Automatic annotation (TrEMBL):
<keyword id="KW-0337">GPI-anchor biosynthesis</keyword>
<keyword id="KW-0472">Membrane</keyword>
<dbReference type="GO" id="GO:0000139">
    <property type="term" value="C:Golgi membrane"/>
</dbReference>
<dbReference type="GO" id="GO:0016788">
    <property type="term" value="F:hydrolase activity, acting on ester bonds"/>
</dbReference>
<keyword id="KW-1133">Transmembrane helix</keyword>
<keyword id="KW-0732">Signal</keyword>
<dbReference type="InterPro" id="IPR007217">
    <property type="entry name" value="Per1-like"/>
</dbReference>
<comment type="similarity">
    <text>Belongs to the PGAP3 family.</text>
</comment>
<dbReference type="GO" id="GO:0005789">
    <property type="term" value="C:endoplasmic reticulum membrane"/>
</dbReference>
<comment type="function">
    <text>Involved in the lipid remodeling steps of GPI-anchor maturation.</text>
</comment>
<keyword id="KW-0812">Transmembrane</keyword>
<dbReference type="GO" id="GO:0006506">
    <property type="term" value="P:GPI anchor biosynthetic process"/>
</dbReference>
<feature type="transmembrane region" description="Helical">
    <location>
        <begin position="164"/>
        <end position="184"/>
    </location>
</feature>
<dbReference type="Pfam" id="PF04080">
    <property type="entry name" value="Per1"/>
</dbReference>
<feature type="transmembrane region" description="Helical">
    <location>
        <begin position="196"/>
        <end position="214"/>
    </location>
</feature>
<keyword id="KW-0333">Golgi apparatus</keyword>
<protein>
    <recommendedName>
        <fullName>Post-GPI attachment to proteins factor 3</fullName>
    </recommendedName>
</protein>
Length: 345
């Protein structure tokens, strides 16, 4: 009875996450905002704040003629902060201060909530937690590597008994790559970093689905693995090609990621409910936590104090989830190695 009640509560939470979103108008269509940006690009100033970049770049973003020592500093060019982007940010924050004084709610600009920058980093909290999550993933991978190669018995050919070892090493590389580009995109969201972030996230989603199916159903036959991988690979490749060569559609990308993630959660959930694995409580905790984490990703609300939005909370929740995941993988490696050793005797 208690177990059934738990799953009902989880379902209610999921449904609540799907319906609890805030509607927001596009602030970049605000005439006052557009007028501010146009004026800033001409004068280089918003109120008392002026940008020296506007002396070296025209309104269309092209560099003006001038000696090399008068050009924009290299570190600013590397971040791609130019006159237009600085004007857009300052006008956005100025306009939001005006809206706050008038008792109006925050609004989105170019599809994103107005977040305060720190040393040129657009989403400092999300970027910091993406970096921390990457560190946790790296720690989990290293601890797993030490376990299987130095603490557990190896076969005569020096290979591990754990049959999913290769898949886990590939997973570690893919997830750390995705977190790296996510952190870069949170730091500076331009066309290139956005494409790399979306593409690496798609690869990660597809690979974790394949990993979930292979581990949950204990698939060892190579032809069966190909049958599982082929359709997922086709979907991932098609989506990445569409994003990079046809239309960088954020809405479509979210739907694809949510769809793949939903199927993956169903697979993990079925295994968690039916397995007799000695660490099944970790698997079930991972399943429930993954659902709650996905809910955070679906939420949408104005940033608290200008820094913490739903995406930042999602990044925060992913950190303990990563630790729990590698903890279960280490237990699974011990369990499968013990079983296979008994069979070999």
């Amino acid at each position: 009875m208690a177990r059934n009640l738990l799953w009902v509560v989880v379902l209610i939470v999921v449904v609540s996450c799907l319906v609890w979103t805030l509607e927001a108008s596009e602030g970049d269509a605000d005439p006052l905002y557009k007028s501010c940006v146009d004026q800033c690009q001409k004068t280089g100033c918003v109120g008392d704040t002026c940008f020296h970049q506007c002396k070296f770049f025209s309104a269309d973003g092209k560099a003006n003629d001038g000696p090399w020592y008068m050009q924009e500093p290299l570190y600013l060019r590397w971040k791609q902060w130019d006159c237009q982007s600085d004007c857009q940010y300052e006008c956005m924050m100025t306009r939001e201060e005006e809206r706050k004084r008038d008792g109006e709610k925050p609004t989105k600009y170019f599809g994103n909530w107005p977040l305060k920058h720190v040393y040129g980093i657009q989403e400092p909290v999300s970027a910091a937690f993406a970096a921390l999550d990457l560190a946790i993933q790296f720690h989990g991978w290293v601890s797993y590597f030490i376990l299987v190669y130095y603490h557990l018995p190896l076969q005569p050919n020096r290979k591990t008994y754990y049959e999913y070892n290769g898949l886990l090493h590939i997973y570690a590389i893919i997830v750390m790559n995705a977190l790296f580009w996510s952190g870069v995109c949170h730091s500076r969201d331009v066309d290139l970093t956005e494409r790399l972030d979306y593409s690496s996230a798609t690869v990660l989603a597809g690979y974790t689905l394949v990993l979930a199916v292979i581990r949950s159903f204990s698939i060892h036959d190579q032809s069966a693995k190909v049958m599982v991988t082929a359709p997922v690979l086709a979907l991932v490749a098609t989506h990445i090609i569409y994003l990079n060569f046809y239309n960088l559609d954020e809405g479509l990308h979210r739907k694809v990621i949510y769809g793949i993630g939903g199927v993956e959660l169903i697979v993990w959930g079925l295994w968690a409910a039916l397995t007799s694995h000695p660490s099944k409580w970790k698997l079930r905790a991972f399943f429930v936590s993954s659902i709650l984490t996905m809910c955070l990703r679906m939420l949408d609300f104005p940033p608290y104090k200008g820094y913490v939005d739903a995406h930042a909370l999602w990044r925060t929740a992913g950190i303990p989830l990563s630790y729990l995941w590698w903890s279960f993988i280490r237990d699974d490696a011990v369990f499968r190695t013990t079983v296979l050793l008994k069979k070999s005797k």
